[in-house]
Amino acid sequence: MAKRRTLGVLGLGLLGFGLYQFRRQLFSGLLHIRPARHEVAVSRNLQVQMPDGVILYADHYAPHETRLFPTILIRTPYGRSRASGVSGFLPDFVAQRFAERGYNVIVQDVRGRFDSGGEFIPFVNEANDGRATLDWLERQTWFNGVLGMWGQSYVGYVQWALANNGPLYLKALVPSVSGSSMPISGFRDHALGMDTLFRWIMDLEALNHQQRSGHWMKLLSLVPGLQDRILRRAFNHLPLLEADRKLVGEPVIYYRDWFTHTDSQDGYWRAINLNPVVANTTAAVNLISGWYDIFLRESLSDYLALRASGHSPHLTIGPWGHLDADCLWETLRQGMAWFDAILKGDRRGLRKSPVHVYVMGAGEWREMESWPPLAQETHYYLQGQEGLSPQLPPDDTPPDTYRYDPHDPTPSLGGPLMSRHAGSYDNRHLEERPDVLTFTTEKLDQDLEIIGPIRLLLFVQSNRVTCDFFARLCDVYPDGRSMNVTDGLLRLLPDNGTPQPDGSLRITIEMWPTAYRFSRGHAFRLQLSSGAFPRFDRNPGTNDPFGLAVHLLPSEQTVYHDLQHPSVLILPVISQ
C-alpha cells in the first residue's frame, strides 16, 4: 500500500511538472516568444530604503540557478504582484516570462503606492527613488552589472527618470505608450486633457484601495459603465479645480497643485519634464506606441531627440490605443528581443530596420531607416460648398460661420483616449451638428498614402478673446461612413495667431502624425469645430484663470477660405 501511495504521489508530481511545462510552452507559442529555459524562484516583500528613510517594497524573480544573469527593473504605481489585486497580475506575469528566459527581475511599488511608504506625488520622486533603488541593486550578490528597464505608460516614464546621466550599467530601455514629457501632456495643448487625466486619477485612487476593507465601491468604479457615469459628473463640474471631489469624493492634492502651475515652463514642470535631457541617455532605447495612443506625440518627440543627439533608437507604431492588449504583447515580445540583443549580445531576434510603422487603411507594416520618411507635402485647399481640393479657392468664396456653445459642447468621438472608446468611429452623426464644418474631396481615382506629421493652416475670426479650433481628418467610405484618422486642437489665446489686415488671424494646427492609405473610390474629409468634449475641457470663452472659470460664454467663429485667405490642409504624401 505504501508503495502504491508513493507511486501515486510521484505520478501526480510528474503530471504537475508536465502541466507546468505545457503552460510555459503554451505562453511561448501564444506570445511568439522564445521557449522558457529556467524554473523561477520568487522572493517577496524585499525592503529598499530611500535616503529619507521611506521603505519601498519589491519582489525578486530569478532563474533557479547559481550563475549570474542580467537584471530587468520594473517600477510601477499599479501594484507589483497578485497580492496587490487585479492590477498586479500583469507585472507578475511579465516578470515570470522574463525570469524563465534568463533574467533577474525586480518589480517595485513606487513611493506611496500599495505596500511602499511615503506619499505618491506623480512624477516628482521617481528620479531620486529610482537612483536609490539602483544603489540597492548594486549591493546585491546576484547583480551582474548589466541592467535594463521595461514598461508601459507611467512605468515607461520612470525609465526616463533614470536615463538622464544614468549609470553605464543601465544599458537598455523599453518605454512603451509613454514619454519623457508625460507630466505636461495633460496641458500640452493649453487645454486640459480631461478624459485622460480624470480616468487616471480614478484608477489610481481605486486601485490603491483594493487591500483595504470597506473599499469595494472604489474598485467597482473601475467597471467601464459605472466609471463613465461618475466621470460625466466630474466633466460637467465647474470650476475644474474642484472636479476631483466629483471623481473620488475628496480633494486630490497633486491635481490641485497642477492648477497652480499652468505654465509648462514653470519650474515645477521643468524639474519633471525630461524631454530636454533625453539626449543625455546612454542606454539603447526601443520605443513603442500606437496611432491612437494618448502619448504618441511624446514618444515621437523622444525618438527625434535621441536621433538628433546621435543615438539609434528603435521605433514601432502600431494601430493601437493606449490600453490595447496587442500593444502590450508586442511590448513584451520586443522587450525579450531587445534585452537579449543589448544585455546578452544575442541579436538574432532583432528586425533589420530600426523603424516599423503600421499603415492603417492598407493593413500593412512598413520598415524604415528613420522617422519621418521622405514625403511630398501636398496641399488641399478648403473650398466653398464644403469642398477640399488641390486647386486654390476662388477669390469670391464666402466664409463659413458657426456658433459654439460651451453649455452644449461639441462632443469628442474616438481618437487617442485612455479608455475603451479610443480608436476610429463613424463620425456621420457628429458631422450633422450645426457647430461642425466639413470639407470633403472628390472620390479618389487612385490610392493615396500619407505617412508623417500633418498641418492645417487656417484663417479665422472669433468674437471671443479665447476659443478652440479642433480639426479632424476622416476617411469617407463609398457607403458614406466617415472614419476618423487623426486630429489636433489649438486653444487660441490672446497672443496666438498672426493678425491679418482685415482683422482675421492666421493660425496653424499641428495635427497628430499618422500613417494611412485612403483607397481608390474613397474620399477624405476635414472636420472643423471648436471643441472635443470631454477629451478636452470646454473653452469658457472668458479670460478667467485656468481651472477657475464658472461662467460659459458662447462664441461665433468664422473660417475663411478664399484666394486672399487660402486655408489649407498639408498632407505628407508617399510616392506610390
Question: Would you kindly provide a written description of the structure presented here, covering whatever features stand out?
Answer:
By secondary structure, the protein is α+β, with helices and mostly antiparallel strands. 27% of the residues lie in helices and 29% in strands. The chain has 14 helices and 22 strands. The strands form 3 sheets. The chain has a 10-stranded mixed sheet, sandwiched between helices. Helix 3 crosses helix 4 and helix 6 (194-207) crosses helix 8 (224-235). The radius of gyration is 26 Å and the shape is globular. The protein starts with a helix and ends with a strand. The model is unreliable at 1-22 (pLDDT under 50).
Number of strands: 22
Strand content: 25-35%
So what's the overall shape? Answer: globular
Question: What is the helix content?
Answer: 25-40%
Can you list the strand order of the major beta sheet? 1-2-4-3-5-6-7-8-9-10
Q: What structural class do you assign from the helix and strand content?
A: alpha+beta
Q: How many helices?
A: 14
- As residue ranges, the low-confidence spans are 1-22
Could you describe the largest sheet, including whether it forms a barrel?
Answer: 10 strands, mixed
Q: Mean pLDDT, as a whole number?
A: 92
- Which radius of gyration do the C-alpha atoms yield? 26 Å
Distance between the termini: 78 Å
